[in-house]
Design goal:
Elements lengths: L1 H5 L10 H8 L3 E4 L4 E4 L8 H17 L11 H8 L3 H14 L3 E3 L3 E3 L5 H9 L1
Helix pairs in contact: 2-3, 2-6, 3-6, 4-5
């Protein structure tokens, strides 16, 4: 019974850092000095929804790497500004991903990819 209950526990400490790296490696580099993502050529081939997910996973990686980033979570405006995606495109996509559970939201409508959704991001990128 305890093993079944333990399987329900989600812990940030159990995040597979290799999986995060596998997701990001084809698409971005992370600039430690500016805390910006640097898109690679493959980024251009991603749909807008996937760019948002890669961006949010990149923010997670920057926090794990102890970059001087204020928070993993980002507002829709920050996502739009940092990815050069129009806010009018970000808003409906981020709401859809939130409804699907691949993105979560904290106070102030700041969005992030929960640790337990990282596998789902990888699967979306494979499609």
């Amino acid at each position: 019974m305890d093993d079944e209950l333990e399987a329900l526990v989600v812990s940030e400490k159990k995040l597979d850092k290799n999986l995060v790296a596998d997701i990001l490696t084809p698409y971005v580099k992370l600039d430690k000095d500016t805390c910006n993502i640097r898109p690679l050529e493959a980024w251009l081939g991603l749909g807008t929804d996937l760019k948002i997910l890669v961006y949010l996973v990149a923010r997670k990686a920057m926090i794990l790497l102890r970059f001087n980033l204020e928070a993993e979570r980002a507002t829709a405006s920050e996502i739009a500004n940092d990815t050069n995606i129009k806010l009018d495109a970000v808003n409906p996509l981020i709401r859809k991903m939130y409804a699907e559970g691949i993105v979560d939201r904290s106070k102030g409508r700041r969005y992030f990819v929960p640790d337990d959704a990282i596998d789902r991001v990888r699967e979306k990128l494979k499609q």
